[in-house]
Specification:
Chain A: It comes from Chthoniobacter flavus Ellin428. Chain A: This is DUF58 domain-containing protein. The structure holds two protein chains of two kinds. Chain A is built from nine helices and ten strands. By secondary structure, chain A is α/β, with parallel strands linked by helices. Chain A folds into two domains: 232 residues, Rossmann fold (3-Layer(aba) Sandwich), CATH 3.40.50; 47 residues, no CATH class. Helix content of chain B is 23%, strand content 29%. In chain B, a hairpin with a 2-residue loop joins β22 and β23. In chain B, α1 runs antiparallel to α2 and α2 runs antiparallel to α11. The chains are: A alpha/beta, B alpha/beta. At the A-B interface, α3, α7, β8, β9 and α8 of A face β2, α2 and β36 of B.
């Protein structure tokens, strides 16, 4: 399977396999797994003591504590479960933008497919959402065959039209019933206020939300030396602009937008990663995975 | 504003080139597929007003720059505030033709050519240079440079007032040249105000060539010729050619030879009232002028028998030129026409004496005295109207030379004939050269002579003197500064008038009348006419009542001794007295001054002739008329050059790219990887572009 997927680089996979994809919040998986569950379970990981109440299983009484304190305490342990990874890829026309030879969507595919592969390898369920030429809505499931389906669908995404990212986020928030790790791959060219609402919607549904914000350097610096007709890749009206006149305000608008995004990150707790398209994607993933490793004693 | 190169106006649509180029670029600019349109829209919203204004400003400035270039090429002329930028010369010289004909007026406004021209020049100078240049005035009547403070004072100076004199325009140019050369005036603008009257410009004279050469050698001298060549309309002029007092019985009367003239193409008969005033007594009459000229011969004006001498005037009704409506005259017993021949050669003396003794006017007395050169000191200097000198010239500095110069300066005539043995002595700027003989088989003839004026001019009825039939067997060359009046074969001057100062009546004839030299005595008509003309010229300055023409030196070195004979006349200062027509008195002397006859001639030099006279000089001709009160203009191409530079500078400032701000991008600790080739690396992000579509 690996050799057939253009987005999966065996070298990168070999480099990343030692790392695990962790959820930052408790998951509600269907089977036992490597991720923390909100319910108490029978794992070896101690969770807490609580006072005995009638009806509790007397087998779970901690007799040593009774011996020391002459009180009954129940010893509880963490429950481990699997993770539902929902990959949400922006399929708007602007995802077709990028440096020559590689588009933003290509970059998103590489990130998403690699993360999906890693999740599948650690027994987690993987699903895919995208609203592009055709709507893709693949619920998260486990298994290699399902991963193959996800990757096939991912390969078939054709960026076109205006952005439907916000709609996709809201729909994902409604449709994904159990807690999941939702990772967004997008240029996020949407109004920050509406983006904030969409992310809050996901967070409200107890989802762990991460976002890869894919930008090209030229979109930030706006380095043009001649007037040009700018064709909207999402199908809007073209704009005639003289960069020498407009560049200053363009950069000002970019700066304001990025500031707003930082505010969204701060208030929603989204795992936000701003990525330049000329960066190596495996470095980006390493940074992402390492950033999600739980700190000692913080489970 | 006008253009010296008006054809450039056809290129004015080129000023729209920046707009056209802008539109072409607008519709043919390259296309860029762009994703981050939300920032572009936001930037455009922020930039909307300012951006549009900036773009329009840039286009306007570019159009202005191109238009300014076109105007620079077109060499614009402008007066007013725009003329201020024409560049100020170091010196501005104002040459004013104050001749009588400049007093022709526009009947509607009462403004003369001189006043209108002075006003226009003053305004042009004020507009163009203000007080940045040194101003120097030279007028035709006095011919002396006068520094002035402000151009506005031109209208109030005595040196620019009306006169009844003639103008010597070449002399005016010469005065300007002398001033420029002597004072190193730097970049100089010379304004000349004139009516281009032919007699004043002396276009056929020999001085123009030397003037052209001298001015061409100077750097930075530019001429502005402001001319008013339009003739006066419906103008009548009166002249008195002769005044004789006659007694018959118990009556006395003045016999006047009058001429009334006009210059119209289709003359219609008109009745002209004439008014005579003699010693305060006024008589009037009416005459009918059918053609362009009416001559009244011996028109009798009765006077008191006791009135032996006096003065009077003839007046015409006022018209567009008041200066030629009046003619002053004086009368008295005419002095005897006394001539003195100084010669040691009786063979030459006798025909001269015979010619001078034969009376031209039977009413006058003709006397001739013959003296050898050794007795030249006995010349009756006070009574002689003409001195004929045939012999070696007195040495300069001798008493005799001084006496001759003083005699000539008084306006009387001196006529030199060559000695048999010429020497190098020079007098009145001329001296004798060597005798040259004609080929033995054939005598020389006079190949050219001046027949419009001077001693050999045609007779009053237009017939020419038989100068061409004269035979000159030998002639003595005449060397020096003089005005030739006749030339023999080989272009050698035969008759020359001295061009030295105060020697208007000094002539050099390069041959002798007797046999062996010429046929002057044998064919006596030419000699007779020539000698009597020079005698009459000299006699005009004899006697106690004389006629003259207004000129700066006509009252002698001390004009303050003179005063207007008319006690009722307005007081006139002694400087301007010789310049105005009228009758002046000094002791028992009476002098009637009138405008010179050339001033009555409406002929002007053509524009082509003017260009020929000033060929090679930097000049422009501004033809004005009395009805046109527009201000004069200057070349203002510098203004447009500055406008172009300013436009380009502003355009560059507005078009200058704005300072780039460092993009505020949070890098999240990411840095470009130097290991291996990143799959999404790009040395310089280059958006995808497509070719132009329209």
């Amino acid at each position: 399977m690996d050799g057939k997927r253009p987005f999966l680089d065996p070298t990168v996979l070999a480099r990343l396999l030692p790392l695990q994809l962790h959820a930052r919040h408790a998951m509600l998986g269907s089977v036992s797994g490597k991720h923390r569950s909100p319910v108490r379970g029978s794992s070896l990981e101690f969770a807490q003591y609580r006072k005995y109440v009638p009806g509790d299983d007397t087998r779970r009484l901690d007799w040593r504590t009774w011996g020391r304190s002459d009180r009954f305490y129940i010893k509880e342990f963490e429950a481990d479960t699997n993770l539902r990874l929902c990959l949400l890829i922006d399929g708007s026309g602007s995802m077709d933008f990028g440096p020559s030879g590689a588009t933003r969507l290509d970059y998103a595919r590489r990130l998403a497919s690699t993360l999906g592969y890693l999740a599948a390898q650690q027994g987690d369920a993987v699903g895919l959402w995208s609203m592009a030429e055709k709507e893709i809505d693949i619920p998260a499931r486990r298994g290699a065959a399902h991963l193959g389906l996800v990757l096939d669908q991912m390969e078939g995404i054709r960026p076109i039209g205006g952005t439907t990212l916000l709609t996709a986020l809201h729909e994902a928030a409604e449709q994904i019933r159990q807690r999941a790790l939702v990772i967004i791959f997008s240029d996020l060219f949407v109004p920050p206020a509406e983006l904030k609402q969409a992310i809050q919607h996901l967070r409200f549904r107890k989802h762990d939300v991460a976002a890869f914000h894919l930008l090209d350097e030229s979109e930030i610096t706006f380095e043009f030396d001649q007037p040009a007709r700018f064709i909207d890749m999402e199908g809007g009206d073209p704009v005639l602009a003289d960069p020498s006149i407009i560049a200053r305000n363009y950069r000002r608008a970019v700066k304001q937008y990025l500031t707003d995004l930082d505010e969204i990150v701060r208030t929603t707790g989204v795992d936000y990663h701003r990525v330049k398209l000329h960066e190596r994607y495996d470095d980006v993933l390493v940074r992402f995975l390492l950033g999600r490793v739980p700190k000692r004693g913080a489970r | 504003m006008t253009l010296l190169q008006p054809a450039i106006l056809f290129a004015l649509p080129l000023a729209a080139l920046p707009v056209i180029i802008h539109l072409i670029h607008y519709y043919r600019r390259r296309q860029v597929k762009w994703a981050a349109m939300m920032f572009l829209h936001a930037a455009q919203r922020m930039n909307k007003g300012l951006s549009r204004l900036r773009q329009i400003l840039i286009l306007l400035l570019r159009v202005l720059a191109v238009a300014a270039i076109l105007f620079v090429v077109g060499r614009p002329l402008a007066g007013g505030w725009l003329g201020l930028t024409g560049g100020a010369p170091d010196t501005v010289m104002i040459l004013v033709d104050r001749s009588a004909s400049m007093e022709q007026i526009n009947p509607a406004t009462g403004v003369s050519k001189r006043a209108a021209g002075l006003r226009n020049i003053a305004k042009a100078i004020n507009d163009a240079v203000g007080s940045r240049s040194r101003l120097v005035l030279i007028d035709s009547a006095l011919g002396k440079p006068l520094p002035i403070e402000k151009a506005n004072t031109l209208l109030d100076l005595p040196q620019t007032e009306a006169t009844d004199t003639a103008a010597d325009i070449p002399a005016l140019f010469q005065s300007a040249l002398d001033y420029i050369t002597a004072n190193k005036t730097g970049r100089t603008d010379v304004w000349l105000l004139s009516d281009l009257q032919q007699s004043d410009w002396d276009s056929s004279g020999g001085r123009w060539e030397a003037l052209r050469a001298a001015f061409t050698a100077l750097q930075g001298v530019r001429f502005h010729i402001l001319c008013y060549p339009q003739p006066a309309r419906d103008d009548l002029a009166v002249n008195v050619d002769r005044v004789v007092r006659r007694e018959s019985g118990d009556k006395a009367e003045l016999l006047l030879d009058l001429r009334i003239s006009r210059h119209v193409e289709n003359p219609q008969p008109i009745e002209v009232p004439l008014r005579f005033a003699v010693n305060g007594a006024v008589t009037s009459t009416k005459v009918t002028l059918k053609e362009n000229q009416l001559a009244l011969q011996s028109y009798a004006v009765p006077i008191d028998k006791e009135t032996k001498r006096g003065w009077g005037r003839v007046d015409l009704p006022a018209d567009s030129w008041a200066g030629n409506n009046t003619y002053y005259f004086v009368f008295d017993d005419p002095p005897p026409l006394h001539s003195v021949i100084v010669s040691d050669d009786p063979a030459q003396t006798e025909p001269l004496r015979a010619a001078l003794s034969a009376p031209l006017d039977p009413s006058r007395k003709y006397t001739t005295t013959v003296l050898p050169t050794s007795r030249a000191a006995e010349i009756p200097w006070d009574t002689a109207a003409l001195i004929l000198w045939q012999g070696a010239l007195p040495k300069a500095g001798d008493v005799l030379a001084h006496q001759l110069q003083a005699y000539a300066a008084s306006g009387r005539s001196v006529f030199f004939l060559p000695p048999e043995s010429p020497d190098a002595n020079e007098l009145f700027g001329l001296h004798w050269g060597n005798w040259e003989s004609a080929p033995t088989e054939k005598a020389d003839t006079v190949e050219w002579w001046r027949n419009d004026a001077g001693l050999l001019a045609n007779t009053r009825d237009g017939a020419s003197l038989p100068v061409g039939s004269l035979e000159v067997t030998r002639h003595c060359t005449i060397v020096g500064n003089g005005l030739p009046l006749a030339r023999v074969a080989g272009n050698a001057p035969l008759l020359v008038r001295s061009a030295a100062d105060q020697s208007r009546g000094v002539y050099f004839l390069g041959t002798l009348p007797g046999p062996g030299a010429s046929s002057l005595a044998r064919d006596g008509v030419v000699m007779y006419a020539m000698l009597h003309r020079v005698l009459l010229d000299g006699a005009k300055n004899l006697g106690k009542a004389r006629q003259g023409f207004a000129a700066a030196n006509v009252l002698g070195a001390d004009p303050s001794k003179w005063h207007p004979a008319d006690k009722t006349a307005a007081a006139t200062d002694s400087t301007s007295l010789p310049l105005r027509a009228g009758v002046d008195a000094s002791g028992d002397q009476l002098l009637a001054l009138n405008r010179p006859p050339g001033e009555d001639q409406p002929a002007t030099i053509s524009t082509g002739m003017l260009h020929d006279l000033l060929a090679g000089l930097d000049f422009r001709v501004l033809t004005d008329n009395l009805e046109d009160e527009r201000s004069l203009t200057n070349e203002v191409w510098r203004t447009f050059l500055v406008a172009m530079a300013v436009a380009l500078l502003l355009e560059a400032l507005i078009s200058m790219p704005q300072r780039r701000e460092a993009p505020a991008v949070k890098r999240n600790g990411a840095s470009p990887d130097s290991n291996g080739t990143p799959p999404f690396s790009s040395a310089k992000p280059e958006p995808e572009t497509t070719s132009a579509t329209s």
